[in-house]
Amino acid sequence: MITFGDVVRRAGGWLPLIGLAGLVGSLGTLALPTVLGHAVDALITGHSRGVWVAAAGVLIAVNVVFDVVDAYAGTACVAGTTAWLRDRVVRHVLAIGPARAARFETGDLVTRVSGSAVEAAQAGPAVVTTISAALPPIGSLVLLAWIDLWLALALLIGLALVVAVLRTFALRSAAVLVAYQQTQSAIAARLAESLGGARTIAAAGTVGAEERRVLADLPKLHEHGAGTWHVLARSSAQATLVGPLVLVAVLAAGGLELLRGRITPGELFAASQYAVIGGGLGALTGVFSRLARAKAGVRRVGEVLATEPVSYGAEALPDGPGAVEFRGVTVRADDAVLLEDVNLSIPGGAAVAVVGASGAGKSVLAEVAARLRAPDEGEVLLDGIALAALDHRALRTAVGCAFERPVLVGASIGDAVAAGREIDVRASARATHADEFVGRLPDGYATPLADAPLSGGEHQRLGLARAWPARRLLVLDDATSSVDMVTEMQIARTLTDDHGERTRLIVTHRAATAARADLVVWLAGGKVVATGTHDELWARPGYREVFG
Fold first, then answer.
1. How far apart are CA 530 and CA 519, in angstroms?
2. What are phi and psi of 540, to 5 degrees?
3. Positive or negative CA dihedral for 492, 493, 495, 496?
4. In this structure, which of 48, 169, 452, 502 has its CB flanked by the most CB atoms within 10 Å?
């Protein structure tokens, strides 16, 4: 979890510099009217006007320098905090695992990383800027009181109106900004879905319908965006109206005091400038808007970081054949039970086929076995050690996974198979019959992944090659469904004839794969119906129906 205060503190050493620049700028802004007032009086009396004009020039130069410092420090602070937030969110998304990450749409996660993180990173500078921006109006009130109490009273009445405007703006803008970001994320999520299924959409001739589906919330986004600008415009207009009224009130009071001889012409000039500065409190609507966006960004980033990651322990894996045991494993999602009280012992070194109708819980069982999803109840043990107690590196070295739709990551084919590990890429590819087509590519394993024309079956073979180096347990979730029949038979033979070197948990829809397995686990409705060999289970009509 992350809070607004955490993001502010992360800004670190930049905030004092931003605060110093804001303080010096505020003091310079407050000092300038007094200096110019003295210059006016000196011009009237003819005494020492050059000194005051020079002092005014110095103050202006100092303000310019610290404005530049403030701009540089603010930009650097936001850039550094954004990088930190994005790194933290991406790492956390990977740590929570695919099951928990599925609570967020892909497009929504992208907008939280790309957009919300930038807004959240504004938190530190926004807080300092808000404080700095409030100093000149408050200082103007104090300095007007120093010149004349009636002038200060005129300004105070105007400031009360401006504060009321700002309070209303802060309350309205926060809700509108959150609604805008949520709608934007929904559109991004649907766009990501469409891009992933672009070929299917084109083949079905439903491009127009898909455009309407993706952009269905565009009017709502426009409404929220217009609402944001409406709130900002209304508050700015109100604040802008108050500013001249404050100036008129101060000048009227100042004119009367000048006629009475209580203030000098230079003090009247200074008072008019302080009235402008005080009335400029209305410009804080922009500052408050920035603060509201930062709070909304922190909230959206915090929702991701509040999701509990998959936990790991510190234990090493002892020597063993790769025996897997499920003890009372139950997995839920929302109100549905995906696996219910699964108790299962898988002998080490066995080839185990997991079969069942669609929705039986096969993929969930595979995810739990590979520690990609934590069970809500019960535990899974590998060679007598609970997966949750294993060190992360030990677990991922021992267990490998391949999926129906593998996502290949890396600059080249070789990188996609190696996945950052020191392994024999070619040996893994040969074992999964991927070497055959990789060898035909112009640059072989050095072929850029983006330039490799891969079919669905070739994708699956590379995904299988990536998982192949697993030392203790190989989990395959329908990982050869797109491979041609001859190659699938060759891979199946390689998998089932692994000479007991490791355990293989194979989710399959094919009777031939189940027939070659040492053991078959038959699932239905999230429960284990029966276990045994394919020949033993074939006598049961319900089992035969699994294969159509």
1. 11
2. -95, 125
3. positive
4. 169
